[in-house]
Amino acid sequence: MRSYQRQGLSGAIESGGLALGFFVFAVFLLTPAYFVFKGSFENLTVSLVANESGWTLRNYFEIFSAGYFRYVVNSMIVCISATTLACTISLFTAYCLSRFRFRGRMFLFGAIMGGQFFPWIILVNPIFIVFARASLINSQLGLVLCYTAFITPFTVYLLVGYLTTIPKSLDEAAMIDGASRVVVVTKIILPIMWPGMVAAATFGFLQCWSEYLLALALITDNDLKTIPLGLYQYFGDVQTDWGAVMAGSVVATAPTLLLFLPLQRKLVSGLTAGATK
């Protein structure tokens, strides 16, 4: 009896310790978000001579009157386009790599994964030169192409891992019934692997949404700037409008939460399936 009581007590202590650890970790993660959200509603001016505070909606009125909503729309257009294109390419690429055995398969897969580990920052100058010659500077198309190349390697890796969990007998049964490879991928495989696609799309979208360096190099037209470039304009050499920065950060975070919080279950299952294969 005493042994059972000790086991129960030790289990309760362990559970309490885990709960406390998760609570501390949650507080650690959410505290910066709380201060950003709080600061977006304060009359906060930071400079060499002033420091004012007070609750107000002025920060939001200021950023939207300055055209901040245009940056949100630009980011949505670029990120959704790049994510859709990258996921489409990755779906068919991952299907070929997971279903077919051919000479050079592992080399091709390694080359694709090499793009994931390659430091993109050293390619900014060559990309700018090539895109300038192709008249893709100040073009959303050029930014979409860059982001597609940027996020495709990891999405291919993730979808290959997920596709290995789907038996090949489904493909064979559909092809016996007269379905082509394209029909098999789009009508049979794709509905089954939606969790993996959601995980890949989430990763790609968030990478594009927060990217700054390529957008800075390729976009100079104010009407085409994305959210990271729009936020940067509130940082000055002498004065920084922290209220506007925080309000812009809240607005930038809202679309990602609204898009992906309802899909978090599929996101977790897709990442788990891709990581275990």
Task: Please provide a written account of the structure.
This protein has helices at 2-39, 58-65, 68-99, 105-117, 124-133, 140-163, 169-176, 181-192, 194-209, 213-218, 227-232, 242-260, 264-275; strands spanning 45-46, 51-52. By secondary structure, it is mainly α. It has one domain (68-272): MetI-like fold (Orthogonal Bundle), CATH 1.10.3720. The chain has a two-stranded antiparallel ribbon. Mean pLDDT is 80; it is low at 46-50 and 270-277.
Features:
single chain, MetI-like fold, 74% helix, mainly alpha, two-stranded antiparallel ribbon, 277 residues, disordered C terminus, 1% strand, globular
What is shown here, in short?
By secondary structure, this protein is an all-alpha fold. It has 13 helices and two strands; from the N terminus they run αββαααααααααααα.
